[in-house]
């Protein structure tokens, strides 16, 4: 692989990685979120403003976690931080908007998520993404997010090589968001029909695990990181896509759904952790995905960095305060954390520290 030498410059130890995160990434991610929050505060429509601000407050850690990929190439962090924060903010904002939507129109959801496809296409024209819903006046907020992504992408030297795979992952993400937010009786049939179109690519996964994998932004962020290097080829990009999707991406979202079970029950939202016969099967399947994710990244040029991503995911989600308030989730968490390697425990402690600094 042409970028293998550059990839080996990625941080190889947890201490070095977290030094970069604390010194550079967290302050810059929070500064960018602050810039976007000032725009969100001025959104004219009450509902759009409420959901934009709520997504930033409750899901700030998504942007901070994504910032790890900017920590991997500090020379390009002025490009990567705004790009990662803006795309993740679009994702979180639209997820909130669709979860608590006044609409159940799949065409509305599809048009909203066209903004993500446009965000990763530097030549895409901006359109009215709210055209099919009642709430429409956002004061230019969503357009600003899309433009921020486009402006950053234009500065990535190898973006042409990764663009087809970024677009593929964003397209799958949009499909998931449409199907999981339509009228409740239609959700599972739509998701299962969608699974029929893709299951031959990942026959070892259950349909809900494939759905979870499509809900992750990590594969997109890793491709952005690869594109920040001069010599990333199309072959490199395909290898990276296959190394992250479906297992690393699937682990990311299965953990996210794991800790959100109570919230999703309260809100009547679909949760992919509810499709197992019992907790033992849930633990076994997440463990299976972890093993496959570690095997996949073990073949990458900087396997230690990507292993830290996986261990960091486990630590970040399983240390979330939501876990302690759900007895069944706490039990699953303890089983998953049993015999944890020191690296995971290190990231666990750092995840707790970062949350304490936020409060």
Description:
- It is a single chain.
- With 359 residues, the chain is mostly helical.
- Helices cover 72% and strands 0% of the residues.
- The protein has helices at residues 4-7, 14-40, 46-58, 60-66, 68-71, 77-99, 106-119, 141-153, 159-181, 184-198, 207-214, 218-227, 234-244, 247-259, 261-267, 279-297, 303-318, 321-324, 327-337, 342-358.
- The longest helix has 27 residues, at 14-40.
Helix content: over 70%
Q: Beta fraction of the residues?
A: under 5%
Number of separate helices: 20
Mean pLDDT: 93
How many beta-strand elements?
A: 0
Low-confidence stretches: none
Class by helix and strand content?
mainly alpha
Sheet with most strands: none
Give the terminus-to-terminus CA distance: 43 Å
SSE string, helix = H, strand = E? HHHHHHHHHHHHHHHHHHHH
Using only CA atoms, what is the Rg? 19 Å
Give the CA-based shape: globular
